Amino acid sequence: MEMTPELVLDRVRAAGGRLKLEGLDEASLAGWRRAAKVAKLRLLRAGPQRLRTWSSPGGMSLLLVEVDRQGVESPALAPPETPTRQWVPPPHPRPRTQEFLGRIVPVPSTARRPHRIVEDLIEALNYPERMIYQHRPYLMPNKRRPVQRIRQIWQAILTEAEFRGYETLFRHNRRDHYDSGQLILRIDHDEFPIRLDGERGQPLQLTIREVHPTRRRGYDTWTDTPDHPLHEQLGEVFTHIERWADLLIERREADRRRELQRMRERERRETEARRQFAEDHRRRTIQARIGERQFADDARAYAAALLAVVDDLQPDRADKVRAWADWILRHADQVDSRLNREGMPKTPKPERDDLRPYLPPGHWY
């Protein structure tokens, strides 16, 4: 059946103003597109309705909308769409210190499902040597690292971090030829870089490449010894990192509380300064109105004195004096606050320098 513009509009209206076509062959899709284009042009010439089309591989979507006099479109006869869910950022993992205090981190002898970051960490171990001896690789020393042991420890750390709900990522700056990569353990907003290295004749060492906030220098290091293997110290490592994260979170919350208190104190001072500014403005208004009242009384007395002697003047000069006295009386009535009955004056918005006399020294406004 040949598709016509009238048939397209009938199908869209029958579908409630919104029609979605899927699984069309090339010929059918081309026919729908041609008929929809003609229908779109016809509706554009006259009528309050407009046709909108979207094409996709093997499908097509048609929407019938109405246009008001202002040109605003609204779906015609179309059911309301399901509102889009607002994106909520995932919560940052919090340290679980007390929950896993004293936990022994399991270290399997073989990893059936090796973590993807483990191989990246192993490959980055000899990255500095590869960069230094890239043109003469036969001179690159063989440090005989315990790769299998390192892989086992990394796998245990990554598995435990995932079990505790912490985020892990691999960080390696390839522009730095001396960077051998490190594992980042992220708790809340804090990152803890961990490095694991060891050479022939040297014990395996795990180092947190970040200075503890209670010290000025020095990294925390755990060494693999026969009496105290490194895999038995992983629980202590995680507890140390979690307490570290607790300390950083507590400090941030204390800073946030101090900042909130500082903002409240600042708002209190500015509110008090605005109140004093408003009172001074009202006081000046009272003084001005009292002065206007006294001026109005003096002006009336002056006009009365002029009118008292106007009969003794010549006619042409007497007319000028009467006009002057009448103007004085009218002006006195205009400026007299008792006749105007003005209420509470409106306080103007203070400028930057208006509140400075009411604020303490050093308070920026």
From TrEMBL:
Compositionally biased region (Pro residues): 77-92
Name the record gives this protein: PE-PGRS family protein
Ranges of compositional bias, category Basic and acidic residues: 339-356
Residue ranges of the region described as Disordered: 73-93, 339-365
UniProt superkingdom: Bacteria
